[in-house]
Description:
This protein is mainly beta. Helix content is 13%, strand content 36%.
Amino acid sequence: MNTQIRFDISCALGYEVTGSSDFLFNIEVAQTPQQTALSSHYSVSNALNVESFKSKDLPNKFIRFSASSGFVNVDYVASVLINHYWAEPGTLVEHPIAELPKEALPYLLPSRYCESDKLFDFANSHFGGLPRGYQRVQAICDWVFANVRFMPGASNALTSATDTLNSGAGVCRDFAHLTIGLLRSLNIPARFVAGYDYGADPALGPTDFHAYVEAFVGNRWFIFDSTRICPRNGLVRIGTGFDAADVAFATIFGPARFTGMKLDIQPFDESGLPITLVDNLSLAISTSSIDDMHDGMPNMVDSSRPVSNSVMSAAANSDFSAEIISFKH
C-alpha cells in the first residue's frame, strides 16, 4: 500500500462563444501540506484579461478571463504528490462541540445544498443510536450507498440533500450532499471536496471530476465517499467548501456552449513507476489535518457563492448543467 503517490493530470476543456462572456474556472490542484503541486500550468486560447487568484481562507485556486467570440480552449497539466495518512478506524472518535477546533465549527451548519436542519429528525432516528465515532460516519455512507441509486440525469443544479433523500437517485455531488447533511445533523463537521479521481469503472464513461466528503473525527479530516466509485487514495483535491456551490469547476456569464472535455490522470510510485492503486478499506484515510486548509493568502475575491444568473458549463455526457458543478461520476 503506497502512502506517497504522484499523479500526473491533464485537463482540456472547450467552449464556443457567441457573444461577450466571462469565465471562472476552479480546475487547478490545491496546494496543501499533504498535497504538493510539483508542477501546475494552464493556458487559455482566444481569451482576454486572464488572471489567477485564490479564495478566502481555502486553498481553492481560480482562473478568470473574458472572451467575445469564437472557440475558447482551456488546457491544464499538473504533477502532484500526495501523502496519505492512514489510521485505525476504531481509534477515531467524534468530538463534543465544545472541544472542536474553531476551524471545524462552520461545517456543522446547514448550507444551500446540505439542509442538515431539515434532515435532523431523519438522521437522529436512523443513526442517532449508533456508537459514536468513525464507525457511525461509515454507517451513514453505507446507508447512502445502499439507498441512493447512481443515476445520471436524475438530478439537476437545484437538487439538494433533501431532494436526493426523497428521490433516492443522483450522482456523486448528490451522494456527497446527502452524506454531509446527515453528518451535520448529528453534530459531525463535514465538508464537500471536488477533485480529480483515478480508478473509476470505465463503464461509467471517460474520466471526469468527482465529488466526495471529508468528516472531522479523530482530530483530522478523513475521506468518505458514499459512491464507492474509485479508491480513496485515487482522489486529488481541487477545491474544498460547504457544498458544491463553493467549488464549481466552471462558471460562465454569457452565451457560451460547452464543446467537450478530456481528462486524464495517472498514478506513480515514489520511484516514478506506474502503479495500480490499492485502497485498504479496513483503514481510515486522510489528506488534511485541521489547519491544512489555511494558507494565509490574502483574499482577492470572495468566491464562496456563485453570482446569480450565471450558467455552469457541463461536462461531456454529464448528468446536468447549471449553476453549481457538473459531475458524471
